Amino acid sequence: MSLIGIGRLFVGKPVHPVGADGRMALSDHLRELRARILKAGFAVLAAFGIALFFFEPLFQLVLDPYLAAQRELPNGTTEATTSGAAGGFLLYLKLCGLAALVGSSPVWLYQIWAFVLPALHRHEKRWTAIFAVIAGPLFLAGVVLGYVTLPKGLEILIGLNPDELTNLVEFNDYLTFFSRTLLGFGIAFEIPVFVVLLNLAGVVTGKALGEYRPWIIVGSFVFAAVMTPSGDPFTMTFMAVPMVVLFGISELIARFNDRRRARRSPNAGLSPDEASPL
Fold this sequence. Notes:
Elements: H1 3-11, H2 26-53, H3 55-72, E1 78-81, H4 87-103, H5 105-116, H6 122-159, E2 167-170, H7 171-200, H8 206-211, H9 213-227, H10 233-264
Parallel strand pairs: 1-2
């Protein structure tokens, strides 16, 4: 790669020429994709290196929900462990890797956005920008709610252990459980946003959402039961209830958008049985 190419790679300018018709050849798309992947990869690696220096606070952040559940259980009910000679090393890699993916997410999400953006129309760019602004905080809200409810879910699960046995929690497995729980809550809060996008695209109407509202409520609880690794009704309810509320807000937005779209239609207010003047 030339010095010019390397400079363009890091300053974020296009690494390919654009034709007079505004289109790019397949090879140009592939070079652009390679540049975006390299940028995202460098960001993840840099975040991973930084996370190694903050392992202790990150470890404490993950450990706190387990300790909160442990305090609510009888003494000696559960104990956190690692297994194998490389258990601690794997814990370092997994925890720092998870923190790197989360911490560098603004960079690699932007790279995805920047690669897709030129192919979108102007109105599509506007709606996707709105989606990005709303989706991020909603995902974080779901993650925070999952973190807050995790101790109770752990307490219920570990509490099912017979009194004669000590529950040994292998921490690498617990980290996977921790990640799945928080990711499940984050995704759950994103689904209503996708419903609004489908309405804006004309795929789903607010009236249809109202007709299927009972099934949406049932589906929300089924989804929560499947997505919560703990499987306890407490955690499931804390995921499902906000989902139902967000779906209700999505339905209101969809109905408002349908009315706005109908008013702008040249045939607004006309009966389908009315004869055309032509």
